[in-house]
Write a structure and sequence with these properties.
This protein has about 140 residues and is mainly α. Helix content is about 60%, strand content about 5%.
Length: about 140
């Protein structure tokens, strides 16, 4: 995992410390904590789709079963999965559709992840518009 410290991190911690009494106590205890990448963009976005509208514990359970379908989750690998196997892992019909759509866009080269590093959220979000699951939820880093 590679550490990432967003430019807004210090300001966000200060804001939370001022506005939330629980966070005011927690932030100093974990002051050196930073965001860490879980891996490549495809896996990160796929995990986001799997975890939508379910608890963290349920999302991890479904992801673990989904990840057992292959040694490594890749766009090409997801495109080879059988729908029935993905459904048996606990994914809804809609989430299977979203994951396949995401995999198709990554596999075809239509996604330009390397460009995202230099872009802010508002610039990245339109590039997600082909992914209904992501565009609808409009996930943001900030």
């Amino acid at each position: 995992m590679s550490p990432v410290t967003p430019t807004y991190w210090a300001e966000a911690c200060a804001h939370l410390s001022r506005k939330d009494r629980v966070m005011k106590k927690l932030i100093p205890q974990f002051g050196d904590a930073i965001l860490e990448s879980r891996g490549d963009a495809f896996v990160t976005l796929a995990r986001s789709i799997v975890g939508q509208q379910i608890s963290v514990k349920a999302a991890q359970s479904v992801w673990d079963r989904f990840a057992k379908l292959s040694r490594k989750i890749t766009p090409a690998g997801v495109l080879k999965f059988k729908v029935d196997d993905m459904r048996a892992a606990g994914l809804s019909v809609r989430k299977v559709e979203y994951l396949v759509d995401l995999a198709l866009h990554f596999d075809s080269g239509a996604v330009h992840v390397k460009d995202w590093q230099a872009m802010d959220d508002e610039a990245i979000i339109p590039s997600w518009s082909p992914f209904a699951a992501l565009a609808a939820g409009r996930p943001r880093c900030s």
